[in-house]
Amino acid sequence: LEAFFSPKMLAGQRVLITAGPTFEAIDPVRGITNLSSGKMGFAIARAARQAGAEVTLVAGPVHLATPRGVRRIPVVSARNMAQAVMEQAQQATVFIATAAVADWRPASSAEHKIKKDGSGEVPALAFVENPDILAGVAASERARSGQLYCVGFAAESENLLAHASAKRARKGVPLLVGNIGPATFGQDDNALLLVDAQGHRELPRASKTELARQLVAEIAQRLGTARQ
Ligand code: CTP
Ligand code: CA
Predict the structure, then answer these.
(1) 115 carries a ligand binding annotation
(2) Under a CB-based contact definition with an 8 Å cutoff, are residues 148 and 93 in contact?
(3) 80 tagged catalytic
(4) Ligand 1 centroid to residue 154 C-alpha, Å
(5) Above 70 in pLDDT, residue 118?
(6) Is the Cα torsion angle 90, 91, 97, 98 positive or negative in sign?
(7) What is the ipTM of this complex?
(8) What start and end residues bound the annotated signal peptide (predicted)?
(9) How far is CA 220 from the centre of its chain?
């Protein structure tokens, strides 16, 4: 009932969200990934849907239920994710990048399982850098012309405000959201630092569900002022 009567802050918006880790194959049975749980991104997808948006969630490999009314596009690698996002970004009005995208992938992935050869020698892994999905979307015509509002996330282990401000500039996004430590991967609560052109403010520690609602409200407010 509460959701029914509340004003739909994101009515008419098409929100595209990335969430979870990516998985970069080494061979058919092994790969490189990280500890992102996807919980924050899924919570934001749910909150944006409840706020009246049409929501597409491009999700790496996580076993979380798809929020009701949200369209989920499952992906594995950073390159899969980049491709899905570039397609979907053509229609989106808001892009929120919460995914912990692997920064590097193995330079090549073996067709067959790599076997021990008995000599005790270990395989050497060479890496190449993955595409920066958020920076790519932020540099697109839709984003630069103001039709697509981009929000980035940052996981830092130190000096959050300085790193988040620098990351906001480097990515070219109007809003950058920092996870206030200690490490929030997998936990059900979090605290967020919002950094935009006006400065910064903190959303104090709360459940990811509650923080997602607050963040959706903050984004809706910024869309309103950007378009008036
Ligand atoms: N991101 C992305 N594609 C990548 C790497 C990051 O879209 N290849 C997005 C993340 O989803 C997040 C933001 O960029 O919204 C910042 O990610 P983060 O890992 O904190 O920053 P990086 O630019 O990768 O720098 P570093 O990991 O060295 O701090
Ligand atoms: Ca990174």
Answers:
(1) no
(2) yes
(3) no
(4) 7
(5) yes
(6) negative
(7) 0.99
(8) none
(9) 18
Distances (CA, A) of 13 to 30, 60, 91, 139: 39, 23, 10, 20
Q: Which CATH number fits domain 2-102+130-227: 1.10.357.10, 3.30.70.100, 3.40.50.10300, 3.40.50.300?
A: 3.40.50.10300
Burial class (CB in 10 A: 0-12, 13-18, 19+), 194: buried
Q: What is the pTM of this model?
A: 0.95
- The number of CA neighbours under 13 Å toward the Cβ of 58 is 30
> pLDDT-derived band of residue 114, with 50, 70 and 90 as boundaries?
very high
Does ligand 1 lie within 6 Å of residue 133's CB atom? yes
Nearest in space to 102 (alpha carbons), one of 86, 123, 79, 135:
79
Question: How far apart are the CA of 213 and the centre of ligand 1, in A?
Answer: 23
- Amino acid identity for residue 56 in this structure: T
**Mean model confidence pLDDT for the chain:** 93
- Which residues are 71's β-sheet partners? 56
| Cα angle: 122, vertex 124, 127; to 5 degrees | 150
Q: Are 15 and 54 in contact (CB under 8 A)?
A: yes
The residue extents of the domains of the chain are: 2-102+130-227
Closest residue by CA, ligand 1 atom 17: 154
